[in-house]
Amino acid sequence: MNTMDMLDNLSVRVVAEDSVMYESPFWGQHGISLYVTASKDGFVRHILIDVGQSHEALLHNMRLMGIDPASIDAIVLTHCHYDHTQGLAEVLRAIGKTDIPVIAHPDLFRLNFIDKPYLRHVGITSDDAKSNLEKIGAAFFLTADPLQLMPGLATTGYIQRQTDFEEVGIPLKTIDTQNHLVQDPMNDDISVIGAVKGKGIVILSGCSHAGIVNITKHAIAMSGISEVTSIIGGLHLVEAPMERIAKTVDALDSLVVGSIYAGHCTGFNAQVELRKKFGTRFMPLQTGNYFEYP
Length: 294
Ligand SMILES: [Fe+2]
Ligand SMILES: [Fe+2]
Prior knowledge:
Residues 46-123 form the Metallo-beta-lactamase domain. The chain is α/β, with parallel strands linked by helices.
């Protein structure tokens, strides 16, 4: 099997997250956004994974962190939810360039909603409609396949469901082409994989609606690299029963050789169980965190 190319260096700065680091001046928000810097053979690329839901908080944090939005070369949207995509138009304006690659699954712009406790759309908002975004610089790459951002850094594409204990985590619905209400399986949930020389793969997820164990298995198979150095992102176990959390933690323990930094929709119960299993190799994710590989 071919193995994925390796980056010389990968760094991840958490620019949006539900919580903030102790004594930090950053603003929290319900959402996630990761500013990724990848380098290989002298080429450097800056990728923004998701944009949270508040561009004010995102751009405030980036300013304090000394990150110029104009440095962003491409944006990956892990799935349609508003807490990952809202304000993309404002972020594109702040980047201020044309032809900015925006990578996502082709189902991104569908209707996606909950009806409890009341009817509410939770997908892409109308301000971030595709045609709007294209007018302000977005060049969409909507694909169900893995897409290489540079050698050593790629999106996963659609995640095959393999485990029998993972599911979307929220009763989401959509309307199908026959106009019927159906459960939404969140087929658009994608992640980003970075392979780093001398380390292994780093998995960057938004909400892991596809299931973090499914995502990790997919990442190992896709990269041909079995050393999972880190998982960073949201695991969406916030409403999961303890049984699913236990199975997830056990499965990750057998797959992950390094660390897990999980927050956003991971939930306190899952964070506690991960800490018990991984010790200090697990940390709750917070706005302001900085990770560097190798
Ligand atoms: Fe989320
Ligand atoms: Fe989500």
